[in-house]
Structures are given as structure tokens and as C-alpha cells.
Amino acid sequence: MKRRHTLLIVDDEVDVLDSLRHQFHRAHRVLTAPNARAALDLLHEQEVHLILSDQRMPGMSGDALLAEARRLQPDAIRMLFTGYADIQAVINAVNEGHIFRYILKPWDAVELEGIINQAAEKYDLLAERKALISELQEANDRLTRANEELARADRLK
């Protein structure tokens, strides 16, 4: 079954939020936040799979928000978009927020849709990997217990 991903879009421009919500609402569950504080509140309340944040916002920049989002929901795929070429913000977003992509405004709708789809695929692959590692760990734990029981039974002989 295909997962319906939750996409959080953060931008202080209402028109941008409306446009992106409209573009992605059919394929994803879309949450929007007009600033970083509202976005962090949502991240405390709900599981989010994908985060698309503007860089330049009052109060907290997008790179700082994505770094905090990484601490709150480390599995979420984080993306930064902006109309400004701010190399320090890109460096911060990569180093602190471990972003998946940096997207320039104005965006191409088809390209952005492809990026969001790639991010969703990456989220699914990482979630599957995490589940497989957990299953492997449980199997290893069962095997360790079985070996200990065999060793005890051998000593009792």
C-alpha cells in the first residue's frame, strides 16, 4: 500500500503557502505554517514525513528551523527553498539541518513535484531500512537467547 506522506510547508508568504498546498494536496497530506514557531508547534504535535521551508522568515530562518526539525523528527526529509542565493544559509542547512535539497524561487512546478516525489521515496526507503534493522536486531536477540539456553542445557548434561 502506498503511503500518503505528510508534507509541512513553511513560508511567511500566504500566497506561496496557498499555491503549494493546492499543488500537493491531492498526493500528500499538506500542513502549512506561516513561520518557524508555528512549524515547530506542528512538529511537536504530529508526525511529518517531508518539510519544505523558506529560508528568509521573520523570527527564525529556514536553516535554523530545519536544524531544530532534525532534532524533533530526525526521519523527516528536509528541504530549503528561497529566492535569495545565501551561501551561508545553504552551508548551515546542509551541515546542521542535513537537508535533502536546496530549491530556488521561483520554482518550476513540475521540477518541484519531482523533488517532493524523490523526497517521499527517500523517506520510504529510510523507513524500510529502519524496520529491517529492527527486525534483524530482534532476530539476533532471539538467537543469542537460544544459544545461551543451549549452553546452559549443555552444562547440565
Indicate the mean pLDDT: 92
Number of strands: 5
Shape: elongated
Number of helices: 5
Helix content percent band = 55-70%
**Within the largest sheet, what's the order of strands?**
2-1-3-4-5
Distance between the termini: 51 Å
Biggest sheet architecture: 5 strands, parallel
State the order of secondary-structure elements, H for helix, E for strand: EHEHEHEHEH
Radius of gyration: 21 Å
Q: Based on helices, strands and strand pairing, what is the structural class?
A: alpha/beta
Low-confidence regions: none
Beta fraction of the residues?
A: 15-25%
Notable traits:
5 strands; 58% helix; alpha/beta; 157 residues
Task: Give the helices and strands, then pairings.
Blueprint: E1 6-10, H1 14-24, E2 29-33, H2 36-45, E3 50-54, H3 62-72, E4 77-82, H4 87-97, E5 101-104, H5 109-156
Parallel strand pairs: 1-2, 1-3, 3-4, 4-5
Helix pairs in contact: 2-3, 3-4
Explained architecture:
- This protein has 157 residues and is α/β, with parallel strands linked by helices.
- Strands 2-1-3-4-5 form a five-stranded parallel beta sheet, sandwiched between helices.
- Helix 1 links the parallel strand 1 and strand 2.
- Helix 2 packs parallel to helix 3 and helix 3 runs parallel beside helix 4.
- The longest helix is centred in the C-terminal third of the chain and has 48 residues.
- The mean pLDDT is 92.
In brief:
By secondary structure, the chain is an alpha/beta fold. It is built from 5 helices and 5 strands.
